[in-house]
Amino acid sequence: MIARVLHSSLFFALLLVAAVVFAAASPTKQPPVASKQRILFVGNSYTYYNNLPAVFEQLGNASRPGSIETKMVVAGGATLKDLWDRGEALRTIQQGGWTYVILQEQSTLGRPRIENGIPQINEPSAFHEYARRFDAEIKKAGAKTVFYMTWSRQDSPQNQAKLTAAYSSIAKELGAILAPVGLAWQEVVGGKPELTLYLSDKSHPSPAGTYLAACVFYATLFKRDPAGLPPRVIGKPFDDSHDDSSSTKESKDVELVSLTAQDARFLQQVAWKSVRTQTEAKSSSLFNDSNTLITHGSYLAALRVIQQPADSEGESTRLQMSSWFLSAVGNYGEAQRSFNDSAAKRRQALQEPTEKELDSVRRIPLLSAEEVVLSAVKGHQVVILNEAHHQPEHRAFGARLMPQLAALGVKFVAIETGDQASLDEIAKTGVVKTTTDVYSWDPQRADLLRAIVRAGLKLIAIDVNPREGAQPQSGEDRIAFRESNMARELQAVVDSEPGAKVLVWVGFSHALKTPQGQRGTEWMAARFWKSAMIEPYSIYQMSDEDNLALDDPIYRLVVTGRPDLKRPMGIRLPIASFAGQIPPQVTQDPLYSSLAKLGADAVIVHPLKTPTSATQRPAWLAAGDTAEIGGRLTCGHARCMGYLVQAVRAEDGDADGMTAPVDQVVTRDDGEYLLRVPSGAYKLRVSTLDAAATKDVLVGSVPAATYRSNQRAHCDIHVSRRA
User: Fold this and answer.
1) Do 267 and 215 touch, CB atoms closer than 8 A?
2) Hey, CA dihedral for 43, 47, 48, 54, is it positive or negative?
3) Is a pLDDT exceeding 60 seen at residue 274?
4) What is the pLDDT, as a whole number, of residue 108?
């Protein structure tokens, strides 16, 4: 997916991947409104001034009536320790039935410590200790912990950094949700100081301050822009004269908040921006830590980082990345489950196929997948073949085709990356590094790149380089920017040598030729067709998702109707072009009409997978000229579990430990492994985590040896327990 600085490139891609992955599926309904969410606030006067829970509840119910119920357990000036010791908060949590419990620490993280007349922020150790205690009880009660990041006092804005660090670190440690009220507050104070957020005591929130906090909670918990929420809230004020910590005054309702529409809109915008910025920064941090490790050959350390629980905002990104990393080390089953978990909230289970649909599948001819691609290349100048990034068999299939594509006159392979210099380096050396492109740490991606170069084809980068100019911030604008850039770069390839045949290798929905989804998103293929006036031939690869209920409707229909599918097969639409009216023979056929809606000319359906392990490898790895290398790791009396065994081409060298492996697996508790590699000379290397579990270290190796086609080589390897 993109660029010279690999970290920026993959993160840019991750911000889009959810949309890309599922745009090809049939439009799904929005999830129904969940049952009422019960939210408990635990804190002090920063919570009960202007009755923040009531303001938040009314704003939430304004957009989804009856969806929110709030309660608070508070005490003036209380720390979390005080609230724990009082017992009421704990008893209320243990009653259960809460969706979220919001924790707010005292504004200086403990009893105020005055220096030069200014309250100072305390060390967060006590805050963190009682945050952990509350979090454990919240999780036992089946709820999620939310931290209410507060603001610095008006006379000491420099203290916000300490508050931010204290709240952010404990939220990250516990995998909790963080509501960045303090950051939004800081933004308003700097951007519109005339909008007063403080009361005269320069500490507590004015009604505008409470409204801002409520908008931040709205954006954080519902992941929706608070734009359009009412600027006026009526309710009962909190009565702090009673011992009952959830008491409201027995009086008529009053205006808790009354703002101009302009001021309310400004606060809504700041709240949304602050939450979005924090979410992207959190995903960026997660990405940078794990991707830095994997691109430098530390696969095990990268997996350790990416498999640590994230908060709800970052969980989908974490699961997607985890699926890619697990696939790269040969753990395909767990990779698929991780990807499914990332998609669970965006994809709905499908209905069983009807008999009419199954009849359609049985009547339509299945062609060999190779024939579908090769015939498309014969008849078209530009052919697009996509991949799912978590399905390595797609890359393996493409690698096997490259010699035949070259024989048919294909000259260029335009690929979804932004770093042309790295691609040129492969052409010079034949060596693929884990840093070469955004996915080259995956053995099958690396093999695809090597196969393209071996076939004499020219690799061309067509994706965005995120360091070349500012990128749009909103999701839709970012998609449009990227797809337009890819289409423009592809057109430049075609224009550079008119008539030359081009294979385009991209992921997911970039290959689709028709607008997708309710917003009519135009992906790269559609934009290229429109700008270059050349209709590409688009081929979409599909595999099972380890759960038929989550499969693409087309895939599920085909494998249900043709259970004898044993190798990749293809289905072509019986039309010459998507231009003009789609004929009735397509629109009235269940399978053809689904393919036409997808916006692809053909689909390649890969067989259902069989279970795999460190010693039971997938069938597609054995296709073609392959040898097997297997054996057991021995390491004294210890179990050789969790070691990474890799095969590296002997000709590539590996002085820096960053040569992309040809195959690799992580051992289970018996220490056995099995590698499948094309015939050739390989050296083996074995790695494990260092003592601090921060990077991979080499603990065993086997000198280069030649392995022949259909050979089963046995190779036990002695390794040290730890480096």
Assistant:
1) yes
2) negative
3) yes
4) 93
Report the C-alpha gap between 522 and 441 in whole angstroms. Answer: 30
Amino acid in the structure at residue 406: A
Q: Tokens standing for 347?
A: 């994809």
Residue closest to 413 by CA, chosen among 537, 498, 527, 501 = 501
CA distance 377 to 384: 10
Task: Give the SS3 label for residue 340.
Answer: helix
Q: How far apart are CA 319 and CA 176, in angstroms?
A: 16
Burial class of residue 548, CB neighbours in 10 A (0-12, 13-18, 19+): middle
Q: What is the mean pLDDT of residues 429-446?
A: 93
User: Collapsing DSSP states into helix, strand and coil, what is residue 227?
Assistant: coil
**What pLDDT score does 306 carry?**
85
Strand order in the sheet with 144-148: 68-74, 37-43, 100-103, 144-148, 177-179
Q: What is the DSSP letter of 606?
A: P
What is the predicted pLDDT for the residue at 412? 98
In angstroms, rounded to a whole number, what is the distance separating the alpha carbons of residues 170 and 128? 6
Distance CA 572, CA 586 (A): 11
CB atoms within 10 A of CB 62: 15
CA distance 57 to 103: 17
Q: Quick one: which of 657, 654, 675 has its CA closest to 666?
A: 675
d(CA 614, CA 664): 9
Q: Which helix (H) or strand (E) holds 73?
A: strand 68-74
Question: How far is the CA of 334 from the CAs of 248, 322, 541, in angstroms?
Answer: 51, 9, 21
CA angle 397–402–407, rounded 5-degree value? 140
Residue type, 378: K
3-state secondary structure of 333: helix
User: How many Cα atoms within 13 Å fall on the side-chain side of residue 408?
Assistant: 23
Compute the half-sphere exposure of residue 101: CA atoms within 13 Å on the CB side of its CA. Answer: 30
146 has pLDDT over 60: yes
What's the Cα-to-Cα distance from 107 to each of 49, 113, 160, rounded to whole Å?
Answer: 13, 11, 10
Looking at the domain 619-718, which fold is it? Immunoglobulin-like (2.60.40)
Q: Is 200 exposed, middle or buried (0-12, 13-18, 19+ CB in 10 A)?
A: exposed
Beta bridge partners of 634: 718
Q: Is 430 helix (H, G, I), strand (E, B) or coil?
A: coil
Question: Per the CATH hierarchy, to which homologous superfamily does domain 32-282 belong?
Answer: SGNH hydrolase (3.40.50.1110)
Per-domain residue ranges of the chain: 32-282, 296-343, 355-579, 619-718
Q: For residue 258, give every residue at least 6 positions away whose Cβ sits within 8 Å of its Cβ, in sequence order, or none.
A: 207, 231, 232, 233
Q: Do domains 32-282 and 355-579 have the same CATH topology?
A: yes
**Structural tokens at position 379:** 């008849």
Q: Which two tokens stand for residue 485?
A: 């850039």
What is the phi-psi region of residue 469: left when phi exceeds 0, alpha when psi lies from -120 to 50, beta otherwise? left
What residues does 73 pair with on adjacent strands?
Answer: 42
At 452 the pLDDT is: 97
What value does the mean pLDDT of the chain take?
87
- Whether domain 355-579 has CATH 3.40.50: yes
Q: What b-and-e string marks burial along 571-594, b requiring 16 or more CB atoms within 10 Å of the CB?
A: bbbebeebeeebeeebeebbbbbb
The one-letter code for the residue type at 717 is: I
What element of type H or E holds 417?
none
Residue 201 · residue 112 · CB < 8 Å: no
b/e per residue 621-645 (b: at least 16 CB within 10 A): bebeebbbbbbbbebeeeebeebbb
How are beta strands 644-649 and 680-689 bridged, if at all? antiparallel
